[in-house]
Write a structure and sequence with these properties.
By secondary structure, the chain is mostly helical. The chain is built from 13 helices and no strands. It has helices at residues 5-24, 34-61, 68-91, 96-124, 130-154, 163-185, 192-213, 223-250, 257-284, 290-301, 313-316, 318-322, 325-328. The N and C termini lie far apart (82 Å). Keywords: Signal.
Length: 335
């Protein structure tokens, strides 16, 4: 049967679109221009400057404040990656291997930037003097700029089609660290049984998610199922954090309070892993997974594209106001 010339052209065009769309989930076919690479290099250099600002304020004010160890570790790691990215992007060829390398760095930078922003918010509860409050306000502003800058790098890069399996493995490990922290410091308290049961349930949920995605290509993963489970895991993690906070208010032995601190640091890692999964799924198909898109767009993208003159301090740190740190912090032992 002969096809008309116009029909053949239409058929070939549709086939090309389908093939390209399929290939986009299998490889890093997107290319970067030299200008793109220069822009990424400039953004990486900007990140280095931000990490230096964060470190200066940290060493000036916050070396002995709660969550200081986590903040120092994450800022140091972010600075290392930014410097490596800056050096790499200067002479990198526009090739698939380059994009894979940049994609991996951007994933790590996204997670670290979210962890740093949250840790700054947690540390804010422990400041005492007006000088410390000014320092933490500066750190809060810089941490937001870090997130904005990392998103700008991410905008140049394709979806990471390997992110779900690898990230769920990382999430699984972060939940195990959280559970181990509980057993080391916080057994035998009022909410301990409840915490232990919820942590065991969280571990099983994350292991189930990892099983669903392990060794599967992006297009073979049941994304609606994963999206539903991500939402449940996030809710469970937030509930677990509320239990840690409740026990801190009731009181723990001074030597065990480090367990509360380290547990909330581990929760920062769990939530950052969840956010990367949400972000990458939404980046792959912003029109699909409608409920997830609305939540991610509200919680992540809009949050980091705000009017810089608008003071959204309270909304940016819901835990501080939701759990009443100011009225209770006198009960918490300081380093």
């Amino acid at each position: 049967m002969n096809m008309s010339y116009d029909f053949k052209r239409c058929f070939i065009a549709v086939l090309t679109i389908v093939v390209c769309a399929s290939a986009s989930t299998e490889s890093y076919a997107q290319s970067l221009s030299n200008r793109d690479l220069r822009n990424i290099d400039e953004l990486a250099n900007r990140l280095i400057g931000y990490t230096e600002e964060l470190h200066d304020e940290f060493h000036h004010h916050f070396e002995r404040v709660r969550h200081a160890e986590k903040l120092d570790s994450d800022v140091t790691r972010l600075e290392e990656i930014a410097k490596e990215l800056h050096a790499f992007a200067q002479d990198a060829p526009s090739a698939e291997a380059t994009i894979k390398r940049l994609r991996a760095d951007a994933n790590e930078l996204l997670q670290l930037s979210w962890q740093i922003e949250r840790t700054v918010a947690l540390a804010e509860s422990w400041v005492r003097t007006s000088d410390e409050r000014r320092g933490i306000a500066h750190m809060r502003d810089v941490s937001r700029e870090v997130v904005r800058t990392v998103f700008r790098i991410d905008d140049y890069l394709p979806v990471d089609t390997d992110v779900i399996d690898g990230q769920l493995a990382r999430l699984e490990n972060a939940v195990k660290v959280l559970h181990d922290e509980f057993h080391e410091h916080l057994e035998g308290y009022e909410v301990s049984r409840h915490l232990d049961e919820d942590l065991e349930s969280l571990e099983k949920s994350v292991e189930h998610m990892h099983d669903l995605a392990h060794n599967k290509h992006w297009e073979n993963i049941d994304l609606p199922h994963i999206v539903h489970d991500i939402h449940d895991v996030k809710d469970a993690t937030q509930h677990i954090e509320e239990l840690f906070i409740r026990q801190a208010r009731i009181g723990v032995r001074t030597r065990d309070f480090v367990g509360i601190e380290h547990s909330r640091d581990a929760i920062s890692d769990v939530l950052a892993s969840i956010r990367l999964l949400e972000h990458m799924i939404d980046k792959a198909d912003p029109r699909g997974h409608t409920t997830l898109h609305r939540r991610v767009h509200r919680d992540i993208h809009d949050r980091y594209h705000v009017d810089p003159h608008h003071d959204d301090h309270q909304s940016s740190d819901p835990e501080r106001y939701r759990y009443g740190y100011d009225s209770h912090r006198a009960q918490y032992p300081r380093h």
